[in-house]
Design brief:
Blueprint (H helix, E strand, L loop, with lengths): L1 H34 L1 H19 L17 H4 L6 H8 L3 H31 L4 H16 L2 H12 L5 H4 L16 H26 L3 H9 L4 H26 L6 H5 L9 H4 L2 H12 L2 H29 L7
Length: 327
């Protein structure tokens, strides 16, 4: 009898605790939900935007597998199977456009990240607040301009007859910039850097501003010069920002800035082999032959490859530096 009492008491205690905990949990839930209500309301416009702009249009993926007939619409047009996907791979230019898209984006990631980090550290060391704001505004200005305007700026430099370069540096032997492809990998990388480096620099500066100044003071007391402070304080503190921006860039590594590759080379056919990417190739094909399904298949393929790359790289980052992974 005594043993039964000893056995039942803990059970009753556990049951009572469970009941009490359940009761307390039921009471707390409404309180927690109400306390976060302002946050939910702030999230609501963003969620509606994502739903309308990003998720509802995903139903259009079905057009990648359809032979679109305007009279029948997307959903009632006949199925095409994988024919629209063969559009990209059946062409002999497939290897060329994939090579251009991939290598240009890799170059953009490496060059822009390196230069942006350097500029962020240099500008962050400027003592004068006015000069620092002036430098920030100057490097951000190209980012606010459209690629059409930038294309005319580039044309002002590279025009065969009236361009600045051919009238000054190459006056004796003018170069046909829009006909000779060997110059365009460098030109496109420089133009992309000029346009985007300001935005990336501001992101890295935000990371530098958040570093505790006590770290620099302690490093100075230990005899570390500015270069050692950059190596041991600035760069390690920027690693999460670098990883996040790189992951986002890798997710779009099979996409290209249409304006950069179409407007800046002025759609010159003589340099198609070094300026054609997936986006410009699809556009040129569409305006010559038409095909909503083919463009949808190309977009779907780009999205799938980008998703796989992001998941793969994020898994690698999570394995070696879990705190810097996106998810």
């Amino acid at each position: 009898m005594a043993s039964e009492l000893v056995t039942r008491e803990p059970v009753r205690a556990v049951q009572a605790a469970a009941l009490t905990g359940h009761h307390v949990e039921k009471k707390r839930r409404p309180v927690r939900w109400r306390s976060f209500l302002p946050v939910y309301l702030l999230m609501l416009p963003g969620l509606i935007y994502l739903l309308v702009n990003n998720y509802i249009p995903m139903a259009g993926i079905i057009s990648a597998f359809k032979r679109i007939n305007i009279n029948d619409g997307i959903f009632f047009s006949p199925w095409a199977g994988w024919d629209n996907f063969r559009f990209l791979f059946a062409s002999g230019a497939a290897g060329e456009i994939f090579r251009n898209t991939l290598l240009y984006n890799l170059a953009f990631i490496v060059v822009t990240t390196t230069v942006a980090i350097g500029l962020a550290i240099l500008i962050n060391d400027v003592a004068s607040t006015r000069l620092r704001k002036l430098y920030q505004s100057s490097i951000l200005l190209p980012f606010t301009l459209s690629m059409v305007i930038l294309s005319y700026v580039v044309f002002g430099f590279l025009s065969h007859e009236n361009g600045l370069l051919n009238n000054t540096i190459y006056a004796d032997d003018p170069i046909q910039w829009y006909s000779e492809g060997q110059y365009w990998p460098t030109i496109l990388i420089v133009v992309n850097l000029w346009k985007t480096v300001g935005y990336s620099t501001l992101l890295f500066m935000a990371g530098l501003i958040g570093i505790d100044r006590a770290l620099y003071e302690a490093a100075s007391l230990d005899g570390a010069n500015r270069w050692k402070q950059v190596i041991h304080i600035d760069l390690p503190s920027l690693v999460p920002t670098i990883v996040t921006l790189t992951l986002l860039a890798i997710g779009r590594i099979f996409y290209s800035d249409f304006g950069l590759f179409y407007q800046v080379p002025r759609n010159s056919g003589a340099i198609y082999d070094v300026t054609t990417t997936i986006d410009t190739y699809v556009y040129r094909t569409l305006i010559s032959a038409g095909g909503i399904g083919q463009s949808a298949a190309a977009g779907f393929f780009q999205a799938v490859i980008g998703f796989v790359l992001v998941v793969t790289v994020n898994a690698a980052v999570r394995k070696y530096q879990r705190a810097s992974a996106l998810f």
